[in-house]
Amino acid sequence: MEGLGVFDLSGRVACVTGAASGIGEAAAETLAAAGAAVVLGDIDGDGADRTRDRIVDGGGRAVSRVTDTTQSDQVSALLAAATDEFGRLDVMANVAGVGSYGDVVDVTEAELDRVLAINFKGVFFGCQAAMRVMGPQGSGSIINVSATAINTPVGGLSVYAATKAAVAMLTQSLAVEAGPIGVRVNTIAPGFTLTNFVGGHLRDAEGQVDPAEMDSYLKLMRDRSPLGEVCDASDQANLIWFLASDASRYVTGQILRANAGQSITW
Asked: Annotated catalytic, 101?
């Protein structure tokens, strides 16, 4: 396969968690535009349905399921929807995740458990369920989502960064296990990306953000980039597309970064 054809996903089936918004939403729409049938999971069922409807209205193939990724049976059911609806599974994108802010001394056990469950266990369950389908097929690409926070320690992000570091190591360990049976496993490590995650630490008790504070924060993020830019969800979705496609057929166990260079200057 030559030229742009290596990016063609026609005939393939992709599952995306966190598909109701942000990077997951962008990834689902990008993979569908490349020709894949997509299965969308999110705890926000209405949001996942909206993503599905846009894909279908645009001529793509998509189904959506309410999925709490902290529950292994629900993740398994989501992948069963892929094989039931479309007959196979070629791509598993474990995108669902949450932010967490607070100094170590202030983090409650409940918050620790919440973030570990979503950011690490949810990815683990997605990998596990995907391997049970892809292993017998002898092919597939698993794509996880880590973060630039694994490279650049920042106070107040300890729990978030720790879970994303765990995702990176899970990815590399699984790549060693999965390679001999034809399955590739990689992770993207987004830098600051304009999604609904943005400014979580700036929100007050009612979830509101002062516009001036947000503008100052965005300027700080741009100033920390050699490009003077911040990423949006499509930048991360394009990396997921690359890892889903034959353009990356010899890429496994890697951490790919779209972060406008933040991790080299922070």
From this structure: no
pLDDT at 129: 98
> Of the candidates 181, 171, 162, 198, which has an alpha carbon nearest to the alpha carbon of residue 252?
171
Q: DSSP 3-state assignment of 47? A: helix
Q: Could you tell me the mean pLDDT of each successive run of 10 residues in the chain, 266 residues long? A: 84 98 97 98 98 98 98 98 96 96 95 98 98 97 95 89 97 98 96 69 66 75 79 92 98 92 73
Could you tell me which CATH number the domain at 3-203+231-261 has? 3.40.50.720
Quote the pLDDT of residue 223.
76
| CA–CA dist 131, 122 (Å, integer) | 14
Spatial separation of the C-alpha atoms in residues 170 and 178, rounded to whole Å: 12
| pLDDT at residue 138 in the model | 97
Of 133, 143, 123, the residue nearest 184 (C-alpha): 143
* Nearest CA-CA partner of 163 in 198, 197, 113, 126: 113
Q: Which residues touch 59 (CB under 8 Å, ≥6 apart)?
A: none
Catalytic residue among 101, 160, 217, 250: 160
CA-nearest of 116, 243, 114, 134 to 170 is 116
CA 119 distance to own-chain centroid: 10
The end-to-end CA distance of the chain, in Å, is 40
Contact 258, 191 (CB under 8 A): yes
Pairing of strands 255-256, 13-17: unpaired
pTM value surpassing 0.70: yes
Question: What are the sequence ranges of the domains in the chain?
Answer: 3-203+231-261
| Distance, CA of 179 to CA of 131 (rounded, Å) | 11
